[in-house]
C-alpha cells in the first residue's frame, strides 16, 4: 500500500534538497518520479525545484484551482509514475491535500510532500494543516537558530532587519526576507 508523507520544517532546512535526493534515488533505480511545485513560488524560475546547494530539476506547476487527482490520472495514463514529489506543499489547498490522498489510496502511488509547517506569525498554512492531519507519516527536517537550538519558527524581516508582526500570509522570498530561528529568539524578535 502506498503512503502519504509530510516532510516539514522551517525555511532553509534542506526540504528541496531532500526532495531532489529522493527523485534521484527513484531514477537511479529505473523508476519515474514526478515533481510538482507551487506556481506562485517563482524564486528560481517557474517549473524548477532548486536547492540552495545547487541541485535543480524541472517540475510541474500547481495552482490553487488545479485538481491534482485528475491531473495525476491523466499523467499516469501516458506512462507509469512511481512517486509524486510536491515542493512548497504549504501552498496546497485543503481540497488538493484530499486529492493527493486519493492518489495514494486509489492510484496506489506514494506522495511525498515537503513544506513549511507555520508562517511568519506562527500560524499553520492551509496545506500544512491538512497534511499534518491526514498524512500517514510526518517527518520533521531540522535546521538551527543562530544560538544553536532547533529553529522551528520563521521571522519575516523588513529592509532594516526588524521582525514584521503583520501582513499577508503569502510573500515569496528567501534569505532577503526570512530567517529561521528558535521559539525563544522568535519571541524576542517580536517583543512577545
Ligand atoms: N545535504 C546537505 N548537507 C549539508 N547542508 C545542507 C544539505 N542540504 C541542505 N543543506 C543546507 O540547507 C540549506 C537549505 O537547503 P534547501 O534545500 O534549499 O532548504 P529548504 O527547501 O528547506 O528551504 C542549504 O543552504 C544548506 O546550507
Ligand atoms: C515563512 C513564510 C514563507 N513564505 C514563503 C517564502 C518562500 O517563498 C516559501 C518557503 O520557501 P522554502 O525555503 O522552500 O521553505 O514560502 C510565505 O509566503 N509566508 C511565510 O510566512
Ligand atoms: Zn535561538
Structural class: alpha/beta
Query: Domains counted in the coordinates: how many?
Result: 1
Please write the string of helix (H) and strand (E) elements. EHEEEEHEHEHEEEH
Ions and ligands? adenosine-5'-diphosphate, ligand LXEULUCI, zinc ion
Mean pLDDT: 96
Q: Report strand order across the widest sheet.
A: 5-2-6-7-1-8
Count, helices: 5
Low-confidence runs of at least 5 consecutive residues: none
Strand count, sense and barrel status of the largest sheet are: 6 strands, parallel
Give the CATH H-level superfamily.
P-loop containing nucleotide triphosphate hydrolases
Q: In percent, how much strand structure appears in the residues? A: 15-25%
* Highest-level CATH class: Alpha Beta
Rg, rounded, reads 17 Å
Assign an overall shape.
elongated
CATH architecture: 3-Layer(aba) Sandwich
State the distance separating the first and last CA atoms. 46 Å
Family: Belongs to the thymidine kinase family.
Main location: cytoplasm
Subcellular location: Cytoplasm
GO cellular component, one term: cytosol
Amino acid at each position: 500500500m502506498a503512503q502519504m508523507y509530510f516532510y516539514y520544517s522551517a525555511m532553509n532546512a534542506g526540504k528541496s534538497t531532500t526532495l531532489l535526493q529522493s527523485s534521484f534515488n527513484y531514477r537511479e533505480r529505473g523508476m519515474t518520479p514526478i515533481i510538482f511545485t507551487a506556481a506562485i513560488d517563482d524564486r528560481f524560475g517557474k517549473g524548477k525545484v532548486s536547492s540552495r546547494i545547487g541541485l535543480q530539476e524541472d517540475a510541474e506547476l500547481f495552482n490553487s484551482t488545479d485538481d491534482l487527482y485528475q491531473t495525476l490520472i491523466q499523467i499516469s495514463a501516458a506512462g507509469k509514475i512511481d512517486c509524486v514529489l510536491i515542493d512548497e506543499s504549504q501552498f496546497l489547498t485543503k481540497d488538493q491535500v484530499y486529492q493527493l490522498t486519493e492518489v495514494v489510496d486509489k492510484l496506489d502511488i506514494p506522495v511525498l510532500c515537503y513544506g513549511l509547517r507555520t508562517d511568519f506569525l506562527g500560524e499553520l498554512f492551509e496545506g500544512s494543516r491538512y497534511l499534518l492531519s491526514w498524512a500517514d507519516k510526518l517527518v520533521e527536517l531540522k535546521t538551527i537558530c543562530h544560538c544553536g537550538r532547533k529553529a522551528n519558527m520563521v521571522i519575516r524581516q523588513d529592509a532594516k532587519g526588524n521582525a514584521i508582526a503583520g501582513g499577508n500570509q503569502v510573500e515569496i522570498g528567501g534569505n532577503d526576507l526570512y530567517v529561521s530561528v528558535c521559539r525563544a529568539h522568535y519571541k524576542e524578535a517580536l517583543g512577545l
